[in-house]
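Final report, closing paragraph on structural work. Over the funding period we assembled a curated collection of sequence-structure pairs, and we close with a single example.
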Amino acid sequence: MKRKIREFALDLGVDDVGFAAASDYDSPLTPALDSIFPQAKTLIVMAYREASHCESENMRIAMSGRMGTMEFMESCNYRLSRYLERECKVKAMTTPASYPANVSPEAKFGLIADFSHRHAAIAAGLGNWGRHNLVIHPTLGARVLFSTVLSDIELPSDAQVSGELCNHCDLCVKNCQGGALDAEGKTEQMKCMAHSQPYGIGANIRFWTRFVDSTAEEQKKMMRSPEYMRLYQASFIGYQYHCFKCYSVCPVGQ
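Its predicted structure, as stored:
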């Protein structure tokens, strides 16, 4: 059954596929799998090597490429789940590649996801941790994203990757303009978000707080400002990253 599912996923255009028993998924911060899919027995994790758009200094180009990758990931998730239910006669459930996010205070307003694809990838034998706290794939390197389909089919975990893949060059740390990677084994999320998402919820709140305290003339100027236009665009496009440095400077797999 593994071979059949793997071949279907690879035919979709994904770069690698791994399997993990639900009992091997260990993500300390995210909700238990039981709260998502109580019958889940297996995680099917797909890996996607991202193209070179992340190297562009034009962040619109870089983010456009990321959005295209995420659309492809969501499509593969959906098509695999349909295949599992229609052809394999098992239950399947997709998990979000990125958003929607749980924006409640309990989830730190979106900083804690409902599911961790990185922990799933490690459990499924698709890589291990780098100094940047991203998963490094044995052949695809660090420029890899993951999506996961949950199923009630019972399959054993693939062998986990043994040995270091990170070469500890510290280029990710040196190039992190937010200083979010200074402490090994930890990403300081607020430092990362403040730099990588300049038009996120924090910027939105600050803009409208200033707006309500401004004069009518100042408000007119604010509504025509580049700042407002960027916030407006972000409001319907969604989360937009303006930094891929830790990801793009990693030499592993390049």
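The chain has two domains: 2-165, 172-245. Residues 2-165 form one domain. We thank the funder for supporting this effort.
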